[in-house]
Amino acid sequence: MSRPIALSCGDPSGIGPEIAVAAWDRLRQDCSFVWLGDPRHLPSDTPYQVVTDVSDAVEISVTALPVLEIPFAAPADPGNPSPDNAVGVIKAIETGVQLVTSGQASALCTAPIHKKALIDGAGFAYPGHTEFLAALAGVDRVVMMLASEQLRVVPATIHIALSDVPKVLTPDLLRETISITANGLRRQFGIAHPRIAVAGLNPHAGEGGAMGQEEGDWITALVQALGQNDDLTVTGPHPADTLFHESARARYDAAVCMYHDQALIPIKTLDFDRGVNVTLGLPFIRTSPDHGTAFDIAGQGIANPTSLIEALKMAQRMAGSV
User: Fold this and answer.
1) Distances from the Cα of 37 to the Cα of 24, 50, 90, 207, 269, angstroms
2) Phi, psi torsion values for 256, nearest 5 degrees
3) 34 and 151 assigned to the same domain
4) How far apart are CA 265 and CA 23, in angstroms?
């Protein structure tokens, strides 16, 4: 019997519970998952069934949302995150990691969390969700990929000021980012010979030094050293303004970009609702929707589940490639 995907609940005061139910309703015939959380937090009319063995989820999911119950300290108040529930949110993530590393689940999909509530309620010591997962997995370095059917992008630097990017971006960081991306494309996307396009840091990729020195100083040499071999092709640095149109995208499997917006603007422009956050470098598959808790619309029944649906579908496809 196939293994289900583990879906951690995220912050119960956000849109996580309602989009989980919407995703189950849309996917129950084709993609089974088990929801990890407190069933009190689900919409009141949810047809769910508590399971103790996640292998039962595949059969149950046809008629009910399978739930692996994790008791939380407090009810959910849509739009108002409670530090009282921080321990439960963390336990749901830890349980998901345990399920996927033990082989009981095929992949982990995570609903959005609220960092401040976790800090206030449980002294959460990690910069974010991804770093916590890396710590649980015993991994030092992971990279974030945003993926859809049209484009895969990986930012080498993420949540830092633009003025700090040239200082943080080093040859070692870029080389490691490319390596983790290539390994992820092979292992989790089933691409035997990945083609990676590297964006330049400066406009027109520096234009021979007229618009910046980093490309000439080291980026071009690093890309050329990686170059093309039996199982990898790396090209660039490419001017970012010509890297994302349709014919350019056909020439690579993923683009490694130098900073956050350089990567996220094109994918959110091309496929805003269907972008999926994929963590590469973990010893298991992890996806998540590319949005936050959306407290402002939580509990109103208007949240769009498309990104979560795509995250679950992508996790299923990736599990099939392993």
Assistant:
1) 15, 10, 10, 52, 33
2) -95, 120
3) no
4) 26
Candidates 239, 245, 235, 234; CA nearest to 208 is 239
Range of the domain at 153: 143-269
Residues 134 and 49 in one domain: yes
Torsion of CA 313, 186, 4, 89, to 10 degrees: -80
Q: How far apart are the first and last CA of the chain?
A: 17
Does the residue 275 lie in any domain? no
Q: What are phi and psi of 232, to 5 degrees?
A: -160, 140
Q: Is the pTM of this model over 0.90?
A: yes
Q: Which residues are annotated as a binding site for a divalent metal cation?
A: 159, 204, 260
Q: For residue 256, give the DSSP letter.
A: E
- Residues belonging to the binding site for substrate are 129-130, 268, 277, 286
What would the two tokens of residue 138 be?
């015993």
Measured CA to CA, the distance from residue 315 to residue 29 in angstroms comes to: 16
* Binding site feature residues: 129-130, 159, 204, 260, 268, 277, 286
Q: Residue 158: exposed, middle, or buried by beta-carbon count in 10 A (0-12, 13-18, 19+)?
A: middle
**Could you tell me if 147 and 260 lie in one domain?**
yes
Determine, yes or no, domain membership for 109. Answer: yes
pLDDT tens profile 61-113: 999 999 999 999 999 999 999 999 999 999 999 999 999 999 999 999 999 99
Domain count, the chain: 2
Structure tokens at 209: 């030094």
